């Protein structure tokens, strides 16, 4: 707002905003703090927790005892793999719908969006049985396929809204200068589309990384990504707060950082371009 | 403008997506419907066959179904209520000039990036746990008995976890919408003597209604599939107290191996989700045209 704001009002608003932000962030902050404590200290009263010593013990234990690294790699391979696969399928489709729109393009887009409305549980049984019969249960490739198809509508929609903003005139100019379809895509379109493709990649990796219906139901020990690895902590033996915190911090840190970069794309991407 | 050749090229480029999405929808959904009319239990491999509507009869007359239906509505409704109202207030707050706005924003949106299993476990152990949780310490500090939240108010506790995850999303979208509001309009209203309240009701709320519709639509899609939060906190219990439709179908098909019954439940879930979807698509359709 262009108006001048009195300093007092600004200070009061700042205090309220910081208190709210602190409260909302607190569960994450607390998890990070507990991850640097011993198991004994982690379950003491909150004030005693803060004054107790700091240690990396829990991180050592998590790395030693569990195959943390394997689950981490599963998460990386599954989330990036599914999004890359989705991009390969979606880029031509989004390109065609944005630049060669037909009569039914809008209907096709709406239909794609409507496939997202189907609750996953409605197809859980057949997918589970098919995976069992085809030996895809607990494999990375199985999850890559499912998450790819699950996010495909969002990927297409996001790319479509970005491609739509590329001025058609530039493409036509290239065409008139004799560019073939191939070179038009490689030399003219791609450089202009890269920011949009990158944001699409980023947001969908975040969604795939955090996906916790299919990853929990279709994996066991081998291909389990971090979501499933963390869920294994739900039936604990003995004291485990610090280890749980360490494992959690490791699982959310990469995506938290990626997420902060993607704030702007988040709004646009998840609202299918309806709010910019 | 577009030639016949580019038209067919376009069709060729769109078709893989359309075919894959169609298969992804139609084949499993068709199988679910097929299974829902079969007696098919993985524990009794010999006894299969067509049973008509029997699976539906069992599923729909099971008292657990009504509990699950109610729980689903309460969970989705509760989360929507908290996130839309809370998000509106937070967006108004973040729209003010405050010191360190960027950092405040980053802190507020952080929960959205936390994976569901992590947030559920963190809340379950570090907050709700009656012995070691922070809420336990707080109530003890004020001289109250520790309260076992997940045992006595499981659905509400889960609602709060899920709302915490989705509050940033609602805030971010409403904030984006708020920032696109023409400030001159607000200033003009202010000069004409409109109070803060009437400026909010007559200018901001209508402007935000479209964004709020989008928030409701998208969150509903995701919230109907809430699963991990229930799995790691209460396992749907105690009893059926926190079992939603999604969770009930999971229990029936993957834990009790009743493929037929689970499939019937899945079909019911799809039908209910579609009722919501049609209703919401119409709402959003009206808003998007304008």
TrEMBL record, chain A:
One of its GO terms (cellular component) is plasma membrane. Residues 72-262 form the ABC transmembrane type-1 domain. The chain crosses the membrane at residues 12-33, 72-96, 108-129, 141-163, 184-207, 240-261. One of its GO terms (biological process) is transmembrane transport. The keyword Glycoprotein does not apply. Keywords: Cell membrane, Membrane, Transmembrane, Transmembrane helix, Transport. Pfam families: BPD_transp_1 (PF00528). Its main location: membrane. It is found in: Cell membrane. It is a multi-pass membrane protein. SUPFAM superfamilies: MetI-like. Belongs to the binding-protein-dependent transport system permease family. This is Mannitol ABC transporter permease. The lineage of its organism: Bacteria, Pseudomonadati, Pseudomonadota, Alphaproteobacteria, Rhodobacterales.
Automatic annotation (TrEMBL), chain B:
It comes from the Bacteria. It is found in: Cell membrane. PROSITE patterns: ABC_TM1. GO terms for cellular component: plasma membrane. Residues 69-280 form the ABC transmembrane type-1 domain. The chain crosses the membrane at residues 12-37, 68-94, 106-123, 155-178, 199-224, 259-281. It is a multi-pass membrane protein. GO terms for biological process: transmembrane transport. Pfam families: BPD_transp_1. This is Sugar ABC transporter permease. It comes from Thioclava dalianensis. The lineage of its organism: Bacteria, Pseudomonadati, Pseudomonadota, Alphaproteobacteria, Rhodobacterales.
């Amino acid at each position: 707002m262009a108006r001048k704001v009195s300093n007092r009002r600004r200070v009061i608003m700042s205090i309220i905003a910081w208190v709210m932000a602190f409260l909302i962030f607190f569960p994450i902050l607390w998890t990070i703090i507990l991850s640097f404590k011993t198991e004994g200290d982690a379950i003491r009263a909150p004030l005693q927790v803060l004054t107790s010593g700091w240690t990396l013990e829990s991180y050592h234990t998590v790395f030693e005892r569990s195959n943390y690294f394997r689950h981490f790699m599963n998460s990386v391979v599954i989330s990036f793999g599914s999004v890359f696969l989705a991009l390969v399928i979606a880029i031509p489709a989004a390109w065609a719908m944005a630049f060669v729109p037909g009569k039914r393009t809008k209907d096709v887009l709406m239909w794609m969006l409507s496939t997202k409305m189907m609750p996953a549980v409605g197809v859980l049984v057949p997918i589970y049985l098919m995976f069992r019969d085809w030996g895809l249960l607990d494999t990375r490739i199985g999850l890559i396929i499912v998450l790819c198809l699950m996010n495909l509508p969002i990927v297409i929609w996001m790319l479509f809204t970005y491609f739509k903003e590329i001025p058609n005139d530039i493409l036509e100019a290239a065409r008139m200068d004799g560019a073939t379809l191939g070179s038009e895509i490689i030399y003219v379109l791609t450089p202009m589309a890269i920011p949009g493709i990158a944001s699409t990649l980023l947001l969908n990796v975040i969604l795939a990384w955090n996906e916790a219906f299919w990853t929990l139901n279709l994996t066991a020990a081998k291909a389990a990504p971090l979501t499933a690895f963390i869920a294994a902590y739900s039936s604990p033996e003995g004291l485990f707060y610090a280890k749980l915190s360490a494992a959690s911090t490791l699982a959310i840190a990469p995506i938290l950082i990626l997420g902060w970069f993607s704030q702007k794309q988040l709004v646009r991407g998840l609202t299918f371009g309806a709010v910019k | 403008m577009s030639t016949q050749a580019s038209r067919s090229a376009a069709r060729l480029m769109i078709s893989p997506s359309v075919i894959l999405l169609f298969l992804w929808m139609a084949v499993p959904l068709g199988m679910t419907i097929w299974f829902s009319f079969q007696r098919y239990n993985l524990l009794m491999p010999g006894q299969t066959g067509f049973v008509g509507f029997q699976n539906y009869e069992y599923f729909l007359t099971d008292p657990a179904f009504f509990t699950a239906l109610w729980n689903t509505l309460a969970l989705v409704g509760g989360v929507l209520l908290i996130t839309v109202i809370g998000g509106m207030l937070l967006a108004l707050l973040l729209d003010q000039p405050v010191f360190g706005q960027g950092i405040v924003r980053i802190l507020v949106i952080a929960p959205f990036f936390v994976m569901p299993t992590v947030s559920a476990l963190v809340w379950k152990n570090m907050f709700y746990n009656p012995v070691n949780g922070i809420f336990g310490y707080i109530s003890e500090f004020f001289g109250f008995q520790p309260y076992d939240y997940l045992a006595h108010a499981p659905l509400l506790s889960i609602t709060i976890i899920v709302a915490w995850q989705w509050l940033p999303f609602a805030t971010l979208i409403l904030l984006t919408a708020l920032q696109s509001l023409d400030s001159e309009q607000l200033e003009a209203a202010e000069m004409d003597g409109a109070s803060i309240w009437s400026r909010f009701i007559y200018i901001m709320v209508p402007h935000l209604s479209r964004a709020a519709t989008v928030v409701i639509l998208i969150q509903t899609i995701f919230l109907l599939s809430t699963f991990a939060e229930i799995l790691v906190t209460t396992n749907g219990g105690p009893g059926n107290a926190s079992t939603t439709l999604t969770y009930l179908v999971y229990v029936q098909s993957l834990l009790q191996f009743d493929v037929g019954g689970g499939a019937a439940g899945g079909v019911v879930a799809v039908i209910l989700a579609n009722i919501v979807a049609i209703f919401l698509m119409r709402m959003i359709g009206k808003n998007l045209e304008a």
